[in-house]
Amino acid sequence: MSEPAYRNPWHTQAAVVTAIRAETPGVATFELAWVDAKSKPRVPAKPGQFNMLYMPGVGETAISLSGDALHSDLLLHTIRKVGNVTGAMFRLSVGATLGVRGPFGSAWPIDECVGADLVLVCGGIGLAPMRSLVNQLIRRRSEFGEVHLLIGARTPRDLLYRNEYSRWKAGGINVQTTVDRAESTWTGNIGVVTLLLERLNRFKPAGASLMTCGPEVMMMYTIQMAISRGFERRRMWVSLERNMNCAVGTCGHCQFGPHFVCKDGPVLRFDLIEALLEVKDL
Ligand SMILES: Cc1cc2nc3c(=O)[nH]c(=O)nc-3n(C[C@H](O)[C@H](O)[C@H](O)COP(=O)(O)OP(=O)(O)OC[C@H]3O[C@@H](n4cnc5c(N)ncnc54)[C@H](O)[C@@H]3O)c2cc1C
């Protein structure tokens, strides 16, 4: 069995905020550095994994790694302010410290997709756990067929990482965007992200792989559209952002049938959890 990336899964390590970048309304990327270099995980985090971020006196929450942990010691977390913990993080300034446990969970199955066409579909903050995947795919671009990244957002102002799209395109990724509601200056697509999947013509469905992250309803419509386009159920993966506590499959908070989203997920193969997706959060 491979060694876990962390030394002690319960041990929270201190990290210092080295930069805070505003991304879209209510969303910011926090750049963190370990206070003690020995806190660095033994094995770098893989795209799709998450950390538990701890605000002393407030609580702890799961946040995906959105940076390039394989090539940098800095941790990047893109966070939407929704509640207690994320609200407290948004009151931090550069130089403040917080706690980090991880990395935890499953990763996007990059190696299983070598040789295939790839379609990545995300909505809103769902692009955060895909950014590190996109960067890896660019590094390993010759190993894959067509790579399409379909991004949906509420409005143009809600499109995450907009200044990175030209670099991703130059790296061989077909980036397409769409918004639910446009402003007068927007000349791009309008409509749900599944429309982009419906119109996609530069891919071979046989053997093609699909990975999706975003609101569950969006992922379900994406999967339905993908099935109608000829994707196989065992070639599709979803990233589930269910509520979780311990992150190591002990507390049962995120138990989803026989699966623990924290330990077996968040990235799960669709055919293995299809029936369970009907179940709402407990
Ligand atoms: C594996 C995993 C990875 C995640 N990665 C990220 C990430 O990269 N970035 C990120 O911003 N979040 C991410 N999340 C979601 C994040 O963990 C939750 O938003 C978390 O609840 C925030 O904690 P809080 O204490 O601020 O809010 P809470 O106090 O837990 O929530 C406050 C209120 O907001 C509601 N709420 C919670 N989440 C959302 C939401 N997403 N949208 C709207 N309302 C919501 C709750 O129902 C509650 O009513 C991830 C979750 C998981 C499980």
Automatic annotation (TrEMBL):
SUPFAM superfamilies in alphabetical order: Ferredoxin reductase-like, C-terminal NADP-linked domain (SSF52343), Riboflavin synthase domain-like (SSF63380)
Binding site for [2Fe-2S] cluster: 246, 251, 254, 262
InterPro entries, per database record: Cyt_c3_hydrogenase_gsu (IPR012165), Dihydroorotate_DH_Fe-S-bd (IPR019480), FAD-bd_FR_type (IPR017927), Flavoprot_Pyr_Nucl_cyt_Rdtase (IPR001709), FNR_nucleotide-bd (IPR039261), OxRdtase_FAD/NAD-bd (IPR001433), PyrK_electron_transfer (IPR050353), Riboflavin_synthase-like_b-brl (IPR017938)
Domain FAD-binding FR-type stretches: 10-110
Keyword Iron-sulfur: yes
Keyword terms of this UniProt record: 2Fe-2S, Iron, Iron-sulfur, Metal-binding
Keyword Metal-binding (UniProt): yes
Cofactor binding remark: Binds 1 [2Fe-2S] cluster per subunit.
A molecular-function term among this protein's GO annotations: 2 iron, 2 sulfur cluster binding
GO biological process terms on file: pyrimidine nucleotide biosynthetic process
Transmembrane segments: none
Cofactor(s) listed in the protein's UniProt record: [2Fe-2S] cluster
Protein name, per record: Anaerobic sulfite reductase subunit B
Organism: Novipirellula galeiformis
